[in-house]
Amino acid sequence: MIEVHDLNKTFKKVVKEKGLAGSFKSLFNPQTVDFEAVKNLTFNVPKGQVFGFIGANGAGKSTTIKMLTGILTPTSGKCTINGFNPQKDRKKYVQEIGVVFGQRTQLWWDLPLQETYSVLKEVYQVPDKEFRTRMGFLNEILDLNDFINDPVRTLSLGQRMRADIAASLLHRPKVLFLDEPTIGLDVSVKDKIRKAITAINQEEKTTILLTTHDLKDIELLCQRIYLIDHGEKIFDGSIEELKKQYGKIHEVVFKLENKNDSSILDYQKKFSNIDTAVAEDTIHVYFDATKVPLPNIIKYTLDRVPIVDVAVKDPDVEDIVRRFIRREIGNDSEKV
Ligand SMILES: Nc1ncnc2c1ncn2[C@@H]1O[C@H](COP(=O)(O)OP(=O)(O)OP(=O)(O)O)[C@@H](O)[C@H]1O
């Protein structure tokens, strides 16, 4: 359904010299450098898949979605969605897709919500009967009735997001692009939105490309995870494969009796393939269990400092993805 081949996007970025003089200089004589926001992305998403497009802030997710939806033109490479070129076949293509940018709305701010749907009905040329049935279904999965006559500007964020998702689905798109659809929402609204996404995917076999920083979204919704970092693919596969590939990194957490003791422990000097993070009186030690035996780490620690507590954590998907998003694992992840 979605075919992406060697997709690239390079932006020109203005480089500013330091200070006020630098600001004036770049205002009148801007110097630019090329910045590769998306690099050689290649993937295919089959019909009906929920594809989790995941990465840290600035990884290139929105830029990719903008190219796939025809808002931006790729610098090079190709994307085809259900046979359409998003840039060339724009008019026909918009009938095929629904798009939600969680940080922005496509609803008319001053109109009652129902009016927005009536305008969209005309834009997408949805016949009357079909429109009524569709609104009934969308109301059922997204609970719109309580606020459907209110002006959009008066809606809460959760109501607005549900309204936006309904707007993107009005014309029964084959592909749905959801860029952070649960951002800033409380748990109960997130839950409602997740159920609606699942219903659409299961009942209509809609292909869904989802970007999110919410780990529960990833776990509950994504059938496949595609991780990108600095515009490049770093992982593509199922949750099980992700666990297999990166799940070898285990974590042991020591709670120290005296927080100043952390300086006594130099794991990097003693062991190779090891990473640490210190927070107050707690030390997190990340290690590859196939290379460094856990008893050695524990012995090394106990021999040197008094410990109040030790906990060993097996990595779960949330943990792995969280570390990716925080850039604790990147292209050089093999180093641990
Ligand atoms: N129009 C633009 N001009 C110059 N640079 C841009 C432009 N749009 C995006 N970028 C840069 O491209 C990189 C990728 O941005 P993008 O918005 O795609 O990231 P993202 O993965 O969606 O991040 P986030 O999770 O924060 O939304 C960033 O470094 C950003 O500053």
UniProtKB/TrEMBL annotation:
InterPro entries recorded: AAA+_ATPase, ABC_transporter-like_ATP-bd, ABC_transporter-like_CS, ABC_transporter_ATP-binding, P-loop_NTPase
A molecular-function term among this protein's GO annotations: ATP binding
Gene3D superfamilies, alphabetized: P-loop containing nucleotide triphosphate hydrolases
PROSITE patterns reported for this sequence: ABC_TRANSPORTER_1 (PS00211), ABC_TRANSPORTER_2 (PS50893)
Domain ABC transporter: 2-255
Keyword entries, A-Z: ATP-binding, Nucleotide-binding, Transport
PANTHER family: ABC TRANSPORTER ATP-BINDING PROTEIN, ABC-TRANSPORT PROTEIN, ATP-BINDING COMPONENT
Record's protein name: Sugar ABC transporter ATP-binding protein
Source organism per UniProt: Lactobacillus melliventris
